[in-house]
Each structure stands twice: as C-alpha cells, then as structure tokens.
Design a protein that fits this description.
Arc Repressor Mutant, subunit A; three-stranded antiparallel beta sheet; two-stranded antiparallel ribbon; 2 helices
Length: 70
C-alpha cells in the first residue's frame, strides 16, 4: 500500500492485539471507531500501520483510582 509515494508497513488486528496485549475484538472496535490513524478495512480484515500507537481505553474513567471505587 502506498501513501504519499511511500510504502507503508501494515499488520493485522491479530498482530496488533498481541503487540498491545489486548483482545483482537478490542482492536477491531478501535478501528471501526476510527481511533487508530491509518487503519484501513479490506472486506472483513483490518490493516493497521505497524507504527500505530495503542489508543487509550475509553472504558476506564480518567483520573479515578482504585480508592474511588469503594
């Protein structure tokens, strides 16, 4: 795949999940929510730039600690 004349290196959602230590389904959700820059969908598969960073998990409340859960 080319972007701006440069060949970009992509990985699959499965590979990204292993790299980031999360489930593949979470990676697919990040992609479908457009939270991973440069992710491209081909049929049912996602191609994710190898250098993409893991998005922050929106399910975790910002600024809360374990003490706040009591």
């Amino acid at each position: 795949m080319c972007e701006g004349g440069f060949l970009m290196d992509y990985i699959s959602a499965t590979q990204a999940a292993k790299k980031w230590g999360i489930f593949e389904r979470r990676v697919q959700k990040y992609c479908s929510d457009d939270r991973i820059d440069g992710a491209v969908r081909f049929s049912r598969l996602w191609a994710i730039p190898r250098d993409a960073s893991k998005p922050a998990d929106p399910r975790k409340a910002k600024g809360k600690t374990d003490e706040d859960k009591v």
